[in-house]
Amino acid sequence: MSSDRSSDRSSGSFPSGFLWGSATAAYQVEGAAAEGGRTPSIWDRFSHTPGRTENGDTGDVACDHYHRRADDVAMMADLGLNAYRFSVSWPRVQPTGRGPAVQRGLDFYRALVDDLLEHGITPAVTLYHWDLPQELEDAGGWPERDTAYRFAEYADLVAGALDDRVDLWTTLNEPWCSAFLGYGSGVHAPGRTEPLAALRAAHHLNLAHGLGAQALRSRLPARARIGISLNPSVVRPLDPSSAADVDAARRIDALANRVFTGPLLHGAYPDDLLADTAGITDWSFVGCDDAKLAQQRLDWLGINYYTPALVSHAPGGDVPRSDGHGASDHSPWPGADSVAFHQPPGERTAMGWSIDPSGLYELLVQYGREAPGVPLYITENGAAYDDKPEADGTVQDPERIAYLHAHLEAVRRALAVGADVRGYFLWSLLDNFEWSYGYSKRFGAVYVDFATQKRTPKASARWYGELARTGVLPPPVRE
Question: Which reaction does it catalyse (predicted)?
C-alpha cells in the first residue's frame, strides 16, 4: 500500500486531488424511456411486470435527468462537487445490443460530458449498470457467452464517442447483483431463479470485463484509467469460535467476493468455490484462457459499500434468510443452502441495513494489500432514510450526515495506514428509482418531488459540498 498519500488525522484533511463526487445510474434517473431511439432494457420489462416492483413503479420518467441534464450539472457545481459518476444506457446507445450506435443516444452523453467539463467536474463513465438490452436477454442474457462479446462491441462504441473527454472508465457496476440477484434470487431484472444460470452469468460478466477492458484500451488514449466497481461483502461468522460458522462465512465470501476477485486479480477461480458448487455445475462453460482474459491490468478498483453480512451454519437450511437483498423464495447463493443470514445489532437505515463503517475500513485495507499498486475509489456509499420536507421547504437529514461522517472517518483511517484511496462517490446525487423498491427508498443528497421534479438539496448535500470544497471533514452536526 502507498504511504505518501496519508491524511492528517488530527486536522481531518484528505489528500489534495481527492475526487469528491456523487453517482447515479441511467435507468434510475434518466427517464425518457422511449425517446431518442432507446428500446427496452431488462429493467423496463421487469418493472412493467406486475408484482416485480413496489407499487408497480417503473423508470419510465424517474428523475427526468435526460431533459434536466444541464440544470442537474449546474446544481452539482453549486454544491461544490468535483466529480460525477454516471452510467451509459446500453439500449439508448445500441438498442438491440448489436450493430452500429444510435448517434442521438451518444449525443446525450457527449452533451453531459461537455456540461461537466465546462463546470470543472470530472466525468466518470460506467458502461454497465444493469440495463442489458432486452433483445440480448431474449437471446439468453448473461448466462450466454455471446453477451460478453456484445458488451465489448458496445464498449468500443462508447469509447469512440467520448475518448477525448473522459479519462475515468468503469466496465461493470456490481456484477454480483447482475448475476446473483438477476438470475439467482430473481429480485432484480431479468427475474430468473436458476442457480446454474447465476454462476454462468458471473463468469460471463468476468469475461465481459476482460474483453471490454481490451476494447477500451485499443480505442482510448494512454491517459485513460480503466477499472471495475465491485460490491465486496464483509462476511463475519455469527460465532467466530464455531468452525461451522467460520466455514459458512467462507462459503459466502467465495460467492460474494472471490468469484470475481479470483479471475480479476489472480487469473483463476478459487478451488473452494468450484468444490462448493460442484453439485450445480462442473464449470465446463469456462474456456481454458477465460480467467486469465478477465485479469486485465486494473488502473483502479472501485469499492461499493453499504453494510456487512453476519452468517451462521444452518443445518438443513432451516433458518430464515435475511441477507438484505429483497424478499424471494429463491436464494442468491448457489451452493450455500446451509448458510443463514442474521441481522447485526445496532442502528439501521431505512433499507434495514445495519450501519457499520468498520466494514468499509476493512475492505480498503484488505484490497490495498490484495491489489498492491492499484488505486482505490469508493464508487458508492450512502444511506436511505425517510426524508421529508420541513414546513419551510428544507430537508433536514441529520441521520445521513452522521452516516457519511462515520464512513468518511473510516476512509481517513484507511488512508492513515497507507490505503491508496483516490476518491469518494456519494450514492446518490438524487432520490431515484431504487430498483425493486421503486420510489419508496430515498438515497439522494438531493430530494426529488417526483410529481413536480423539483430538486431540493438536503442538509447532507450542503454538508458534503463543504467537504468537497475544503477537503476537510466537517463535524457531523452543525450547532
Answer: Hydrolysis of terminal, non-reducing beta-D-glucosyl residues with release of beta-D-glucose
